[in-house]
Amino acid sequence: VDIPGATLGEETLAQTTGRARRGRVVRAAVAGATGYVGRELITLLARHPAARLTHLMSSGRDGKGSKSLEHSHPALRGKSHVPIQPLALEELGPATTDVVFFATPHETSHHAVPELLNRGLRVIDLSGAFRLKDAGAYSRWYGFEHHAGAALNEAVYGLTELNAEEIRAARLVSNPGCYATSVILALAPLLRAKWVNETVGIICDSKSGASGAGRGLSEKLHYVEVNENCRAYGLFTHRHVPEMLQALGLEEERFTFTPHLLPVNRGILSTIYVRLNEPREAAEVEGMFRDFYAAAPLVRVYEHGALPEIQAVAGTNYTDLGFALDAASERLIVVSALDNLGKGAAGQAIQNMNLMFGYAEETGLV
Amino acid sequence: VDIPGATLGEETLAQTTGRARRGRVVRAAVAGATGYVGRELITLLARHPAARLTHLMSSGRDGKGSKSLEHSHPALRGKSHVPIQPLALEELGPATTDVVFFATPHETSHHAVPELLNRGLRVIDLSGAFRLKDAGAYSRWYGFEHHAGAALNEAVYGLTELNAEEIRAARLVSNPGCYATSVILALAPLLRAKWVNETVGIICDSKSGASGAGRGLSEKLHYVEVNENCRAYGLFTHRHVPEMLQALGLEEERFTFTPHLLPVNRGILSTIYVRLNEPREAAEVEGMFRDFYAAAPLVRVYEHGALPEIQAVAGTNYTDLGFALDAASERLIVVSALDNLGKGAAGQAIQNMNLMFGYAEETGLV
Amino acid sequence: VDIPGATLGEETLAQTTGRARRGRVVRAAVAGATGYVGRELITLLARHPAARLTHLMSSGRDGKGSKSLEHSHPALRGKSHVPIQPLALEELGPATTDVVFFATPHETSHHAVPELLNRGLRVIDLSGAFRLKDAGAYSRWYGFEHHAGAALNEAVYGLTELNAEEIRAARLVSNPGCYATSVILALAPLLRAKWVNETVGIICDSKSGASGAGRGLSEKLHYVEVNENCRAYGLFTHRHVPEMLQALGLEEERFTFTPHLLPVNRGILSTIYVRLNEPREAAEVEGMFRDFYAAAPLVRVYEHGALPEIQAVAGTNYTDLGFALDAASERLIVVSALDNLGKGAAGQAIQNMNLMFGYAEETGLV
Amino acid sequence: VDIPGATLGEETLAQTTGRARRGRVVRAAVAGATGYVGRELITLLARHPAARLTHLMSSGRDGKGSKSLEHSHPALRGKSHVPIQPLALEELGPATTDVVFFATPHETSHHAVPELLNRGLRVIDLSGAFRLKDAGAYSRWYGFEHHAGAALNEAVYGLTELNAEEIRAARLVSNPGCYATSVILALAPLLRAKWVNETVGIICDSKSGASGAGRGLSEKLHYVEVNENCRAYGLFTHRHVPEMLQALGLEEERFTFTPHLLPVNRGILSTIYVRLNEPREAAEVEGMFRDFYAAAPLVRVYEHGALPEIQAVAGTNYTDLGFALDAASERLIVVSALDNLGKGAAGQAIQNMNLMFGYAEETGLV
After folding, report:
1. Digit-coded pLDDT (tens) for B217-276
2. N or C: which end of chain A has fewer CB within 10 A?
3. Buried b (16+ CB within 10 A) or exposed e, B256-286
4. Nearest CA of chain A to the CA of C281: how many Å?
5. In the structure, how many helices (H) and strands (E) does chain D have?
6. D150 at C interface, C-beta within 8 A
7. What pTM was computed for the model?
8. Which residues of A touch B207 (CB under 8 A)?
């Protein structure tokens, strides 16, 4: 016996190593390195077999002068010698870097991304700045006028399982919102199969851990206020609604999304209520989901009777999908779970990077 | 200045004290004293100005021999000298006791309540044993055959705000489920006003703290399994559904209730989705709720734009109600919050006791 | 049977009501009404049978213009119509107010308290501004020069169980720190009995819930940073150390206090390590504690073999004390628990108010 | 640029892959697969580049018949096709397996380990059954008579940083307790340097997450009981004390260890109080720790002024060490943090496996 690899990791590692040998290392910079999504990007890139961190930048809190990584992220002590420096676009170019991740506020991405594209870099933007195809929609949902139309036009919406071909060729990938990923992956199979009675409306009731709200200070995120609490917010107005409508082809007035803040650090659980437009058996529903995601290594479809929960996905890059059906009344409830920092943000961003640079999508993620 | 009482407590205390002087002390026994609802009943009775604890009994964990109160409930150390003894119906009678609270499994109540009624005692049952008017429904929802038809017939459903008159006269009050209280108080005003489009269905997505699942051991309630987690359970099958249907007059196939387990100790947040059957302004909706609960001291209706959260009600006996309206699409979301041990269980039980014995319903509860 | 009162509350209520009838209402103002200690003071005053809220003031976050109480404290919705206004000393005087509670930063108290004393008001200051008898110590421990020497001279350290007589007569009570209360109550009996080998040193390892750090925003108190974490801080430098040394008569170099931040909202658990200076039996130790606190209604001494924990005291105004003894080696561990907002702050402040105005110390607190 | 590997993982991956190519795969079985330590072992083995899972066994809860992995551990869905079967020693032998990990109760290990050694297998036991060299000590600390003296004699205490040479050659490694690892790694450098005044005593105040207490049901571990709580337990009697005394060469009466239960899932923070026997500068202390652990890839020594916290190590296999010094009084506080499931259990077990089978100790762990 002299073949390396655990039962689990064996094939992935062998394939990945081979591929990495054949391919080339992806040189990656992270803007927004001091936030939670930034931390997750650094963690995933540091352990990725075919990536190398080149720059860590931050425009915010720790942006004044260079800081050590462990100053912002104690758990990453000793994981990289790349310091966190102030955001400096002029230091980023093809000589040193292949791709820049933006885990910044959307204002920062909106401003910086076009310049980096012009410099010949590829960009994966984790903010909302390039998610909506309709530039005019930004004033309503994001409160600013969009002035980067060319970049917006070429941006590919990075919901990996739905748009893999376009993502492979993209210069700019707009990484989906965490809630949006959770809801779109649950509904896309049903809607594409035209199984849903849209007239009665679709309800998405989502619950998210607090890291989804970022590291910026706010009384709403003060420990004592979140702990032993749960609250709904952004009713009818959350920014992830328009990207869900866009990706799913739904009418706003028949699609309701309500986010809630959970007292956990990581994870989103979405409970999604639809009425089917004709009777279905549970086996049919399970089969439909399994077929749709048969080739998707980061989506796990549960057998009928089992439901995902946050602990099943926290710290992973999976989206888990389960369902319950009341066949008599054609009511279907889909439950979707993911880690808002994993498949909901950094994990999906790395998944997209993998496609953009010729690696298997799950490389470094399982 | 020589009138006692804080701004807040003044009237209540004065009234209560006066009433207590005029009236008589309620002598109360608690069966199921070692659980969380039992603890809350003891706490509320101990501070109630017109109640006196006579017996604490437990059929379960601590039921072998008498135990001190602090053995089961460290926070109640020194609060009462009544020991917790094994359940012994024969010790309960009119000579010592006016009312018996059952915070036991429904099997225990089903068996014991008729005997206590026969002994001339009044009973407030916090289990599900007497909530469903249709005795035949117990086999489906609770898994047992109901054999206490006479008691079931006279049982009054103790949703205080809806049934006050019957409760005053009742010998047996069946205290509502925690989820049921949360949902019924939110929907009753809308349904009685006939504002709801029932055809498209009503969705109730509820989130509960772990004390709602009781103190019985289960891997699902082991600390590590609940902490940093959230999960849905009981989809289409939760036992509180039939009492909601019964109280609200709804068809099962158009009413969906999904409970979730939150990593908090106390509190329920219900997010309830309805479509109105004609256009309404937010002010109309708020006004309708305020009118409905104008005389209800334990329901707090929020102004449009504010929403209740769990911290607003944890440790209290209130139900808080708020809403958001998308007037254009006639979508209404009602958010309801209560403490599952307070208004969701022990608080409402004491509220019912107050009515049964001639006190203001909020006595000892605010 | 026509005597009101629960088994528990009976005597207290009757006594209190009688006393309140004979005595007079205490008219109380709260400065610092928007913080957590402020909230607890309002809660306790609102339910106190002999107190009336006159003013709620805040110099901070919500200090611009008047705000409703529920805006700052959702759980207090409907509890009082007194609005929260900006801090305005000129509105406070004997015509309207008997006592002012300061739950403000120490800078605010240091400045404002002398003026209020001059206006003829009594003050209970919950900040550290008047805790240290040595004015010169403030520069080291608090980082400012003390300029209110006259007030400092007359201030009485409000550790109720130790200083009741002086507190009754005081115009200015300096309420102890939460950690200090926890430690002093555990050690005072041992030290006064001269049972401790001080040479080997006393170690106090304390763990506090996050509300003890206040409501001010800080990354260290951001939900995600506190949740699933525990950290030590302020080693050898915490501000509560000098008041412990002062109250206990200890040398700094033989007394070590280390606070830790726990992921809970409320409560302090102190584990305190001493070596006895001669052999003792467990029964002796228990007896000594029981004798010391025989007349203290808010200290609960545990029987040997039982230890307090945070849940036993959270939401209460008690300090619970237990211990373990290794008789052979004369090692004694005392475990002390209290609620940092209860006996550790607002509860003790009300306890002191009770003494200052002639009520039983536990009035409104049990 | 065509060399694979992230900045962080590059060397480790390249070295490991090369080594794995040259060496041989370690075929590993896990007994006690359904518990938390079992889960962590499976997780680490599944991603280890040179290990392969051969058997998963459980004598407990899920031990009746084979179960899928995700049935016990939802997060491991899809990670391995090895089912969890009842404990069956007869299925384990050199033909299929190189090493067996025991993450079982100590009674199970005590019984099973000698048999497996006889069958020619190597064993890493994570229970306490083989930690104490003195067989007679088991009756006092563990409550049973030790009957496996031969195995006990050859067992090597697997505190990797202290015993690497013996571990490499061992057939039976007794993996240290989680608390013991936390305390021993903090104190060993100081004690070996003879810097400590042992006469005044050493105090170790440790705080652990609830997974350290295992997955077995107990009211003490019920969610509602642990959440919003903290308690001390096992004062003077915890089972990890004798292995600390043994490893550190300390007298019981001068060494006090108190564990506490924290409301977190993972992690131990130990605050350790010593008095130095002569004056030292902070730089000296830091240097001493750095020198001691210069070659230890899984111990991270902090610069003076920084302290580890649980979030810095949760989910990792590191032990982090920091300290604070009051030079004038020669008081030193060492703060140690690790993940009780990582370096405190499964991580250290894999670290030991690495040494036993010729791999770098950190392989698969960083």
Report:
1. 999 999 999 999 999 999 999 999 999 999 999 999 999 999 999 999 999 999 999 999
2. N
3. bbbbbbbbbbbbbbbbbbbbbeeebeeebbb
4. 42
5. 13, 14
6. no
7. 0.94
8. 207, 230, 260
